[in-house]
Amino acid sequence: MDADAVRAARRALPGLGATLNEVLLAAAAGALRTVHGDPERWPGAPRPLYGAFPVDLRTPREDRMLGTAVSAVRVPLPVTAADPGERLAACRGALAAFGPLHGGADTVRRAVGAAARLGPWAVRLLAALSCSPGFCPVTCLAFGWPRGPWSLDGRPLERIVPLPPVLAPGSVCLALTDYAGAYTLTAVTHTLPGLARELTGALARELTGLAGPPEPERVPVPEPEPEPDPVPGAPRR
User: Fold this and answer.
1) pTM of the prediction?
2) Phi/psi of residue 184, nearest 5 degrees
């Protein structure tokens, strides 16, 4: 992906700017509009279209815990908003509910813990529900890889290429990674042939739209030439 477009899209929101999750969810909503047309004409409209993103369930006291403690939450994608900036602002509002001040992650943690106490069948049921296209057909994974230097067999790492799993029929998974300023997007779809390539192209254009129009090129204005010195004895104007 165009790194400059991603960075500009992240600066599109006031304050600290947009997170990578917010940018990916907003760009996914716009790309789905581009590929599938007016959402009002989609099957099942006007039902909301949900997208899922991962949430770290570890508390600040558990930041050094080995392994992973991650779940996924779903949020409505703003596919009905026609303006890219409006979609980005809507994604910020949706994800704000899962920030530390609102306790959204605590709600998810309690739900996962309750399923675990009921037994493996409850965890499998919860996982199957969260991956079903009727519940959440779009999954977005955005993460930054820790800076290295990293190497493999003596060769320096240049970028991270995510490989999302193939989910249930009718679902889409988009993954965006950042390593040392190199952004890589992967799209995996279990829908129509060729849709993944269409989505990646539309998402790249959507990032450009989120970044806003380019600044107009400044054309240097030539300075006026100084008037020649008057000839001695010539009449003055």
Assistant:
1) 0.73
2) -130, 130
